[in-house]
Specification:
The protein is α+β, with helices and mostly antiparallel strands and 244 residues long. The strands form two sheets. A seven-stranded antiparallel beta sheet has the order 1-2-11-3-4-9-10. A four-stranded antiparallel beta sheet has the order 7-6-5-8. It is elongated and about 85 Å long.
Length: 244
Amino acid sequence: MFDKWRKKYYFYSNQKKKRHHVRWVVLCFLGFFLVYTSFTTFIVSMRVLESDAMQPGLRSGDRFMFSSYMLYALLPDLAWLNWSLPLRRGNIVLVNMALQERRSMLTIMLDEGIRFVTAQRIGLRDHEDRYHVKRVIGLPGDEIFMTNFVMRVKPRDGSYSLTEFELSEQLYDVTIPQVPALWDESIPFSGNMDTIVLGEDECFLLSDDRSNTNDSRTWGPVPVDLVIGKVLFRYWPITRLGRP
């Protein structure tokens, strides 16, 4: 009788310990997921460049660490905090075009959760053409136009236009394609663009390879809140480690 009671108690105690262990494993996993998601959303993220649109300086397969601008995006008005826009001309930035869809927070969290447990291989939607790495050419209020694939920019408070290279905070080269002399100048491939003035919440982003028109020449000016980060440095390949 006593042995039967002891055996029953032992099994109950063992099962209780197992349930307690499972709960801790689940809680630890959820905690790690929340920390990981918060860190990669609000602090830094790692991305692989998947195209040659930023040639000659950046190549397909290069891996970068990006700082995050998501905290700025959560604040509807930075003026009362005396914060300035974290974008500068010449910055290489990460754009998330999927933010235009205005998905619900539940959908976003579910998508991130699935991608987290599948090592980013599976999600609720295809992430192709979601992220883009581009260079900031124009800021809100700038007057810009393009001639022979080179932008000229008149800053909001400026009195005359300068080339994109003169206004950039960092040095860079661009790839200028050769086009036929009689090519239609009204399309982006021609390398010419009429003057436009950027709105209060718009920036103008370009590929360094100017034969690639998957940028503001075809998208139009990009809302600032779609820019989610800036390149900090390249960590792969090792031979080109450092700030691009």
